[in-house]
Amino acid sequence: MSNEKSSFREGSLEAPTRHPLNWQDSSFYDENDLFSELERVYDICHGCRRCVALCDSFPTLFDLVDESPTMEVDGVEKADYWKVVDECYLCDLCYQTKCPYVPPHEWNVDYPHLMLRAKAIQFKQGRRKLSHKIISNTGNVGKLASIPVVTQTVNAANRSTGLRKILSKTLDIHPEAELPPYHSDTLKRRESKHQAKPVPATPAGPTRGQAALFATCYCNHNAPDIGQDLLQVFEHNDIPIRMVNEDKCCGMPKLEQGDLKTVDKYKRRNIPKLAGMIDQGWDIVAAIPSCVLMFKQELPLMYPDDPQVQKIKQHIFDPFEYLMHRHKAGLLNTAFTRSLGDIAWHVPCHQRVQNIGPKTRDILSLVPDTRIQVVERCSGHDGTYGVRNASYRKSKKIARAVVNRVKKMDADYLVSDCPMAATQIAEGLELRHGETNPLSLLRKAYGI
Asked: 56 or 315: whose pLDDT is higher?
């Protein structure tokens, strides 16, 4: 290994730090430099192997090494390095929960952002599939699919065996993959006249007591009920809440493709709007963990010197994180009208890496006669990875461990803050109840 003089110290005892992403520097797109860094980090990962139980990126790497002539990274063909990159879906768990060599350790391993750099180079070279560019354009696809007549056609096509075979060939979507329905009555259309209730905003912790809901592409087009549940729960707790208007996709689907130019485009549209609302005294909340993470981590690392981006980082919250701040200040409404029984709660990867703790569990545990069993393991879906032809089976394999664990729990409900993860897990279960989102359960517990 090239890091011999540091090999006596296996890990770092300091708190992990994250370096800014120098994506606007021309050296970021230097493929020779990339391959040197890939070889260095692959060598460290090969000698460690703690992350073998995470995504398929690591088993792919270790198999390539073990099957090479030297059984070391130097025996792996450089062209095969891309196979490892293609299996990473940027869940960030290796950095946050497994790797002992993240900064400030001198080996300075940031595996997810190295994979992101490789994907960005692929994208810039035109090596990412056109179909992946299309299906990752969640905002425009959702906008088109939410046109009333188009909605019915798209939903019917998603249920048709014949049309799914066509989708498999044209858009690289596996014919057996579960696809979310589209709604012509989107969240923004349902709540177009919604106004925050005229009640005083009472600060609690870092929250200022009034919030604006960033709808997200998924809640707006595919699961508007979740957004409405959030609105109802917040209003029930006397939190003035309004919608964010004229927003675009958070950019996470494009980030996962390495399309940083489009991420920048969305950033230029969203950041002034959100920062302006924060200046007016509003906090920002979103019901999809990936969208919160985009504003809380990825954009701040891409734009470390942009004060508006850093401002949003400080004022955007997971909804249960927000509610827990209210509870600690004695402001949460705990007058629940019904119990929920046994709940299997799957913790989404993009929520875990926010380092906010199990706030969803903590809030649901306040409901009388309610017991929460926690599942902290990736569902393997991660947006497009769970539906593409090449990765669908691998995605289901990753999910199998979660499904088996939930089966053994025999809970009354399975929920996940990530609706895509919930769908992936629920597909392998026979559920007694239809609710799979914790906001929906909290609304039920309130009787609203």
From this structure: 315
Q: What tens digit of pLDDT does each residue of 78-90 get?
A: 999 999 999 998 9
pLDDT digits (tens, 9 = 90+) for 131-185: 666 666 777 666 666 676 578 777 777 788 888 888 788 888 888 888 888 889 9
218-267 pLDDT, tens digit per residue, is 999 999 999 999 999 999 999 999 999 989 999 999 999 999 999 999 99
Q: How far is CA 3 from CA 46, 106, 295, 389, in A?
A: 13, 9, 34, 39
Calculate the CA 401 to chain-centre distance.
20
Look up the pTM and report it.
0.91
Strand partners, 333: none
Q: Is the pLDDT of residue 98 over 70?
A: yes
CB neighbour list of residue 67: distance below 8 Å, 6 or more residues apart? none
207 phi and psi, to 5 degrees? -90, 150
Widest CA span of the chain, in angstroms?
Answer: 71
Query: What strand order describes the sheet that includes 283-285?
Result: 241-243, 211-213, 283-285, 316-317
- Taking alpha carbons only, the member of 228, 220, 264 closest to residue 245 is 220
Residue with the larger pLDDT of the pair 17 and 306: 306
**What is the 3-class SS of 182-250, one letter each residue?**
CCCCCHHHHCCCCCCCCCCCCCECCECCCEEECCCHHHHHHCHHHHHHHHHHHHHCCCCEEECCCCCCC
Q: Are 118 and 34 in contact (CB under 8 A)?
A: yes
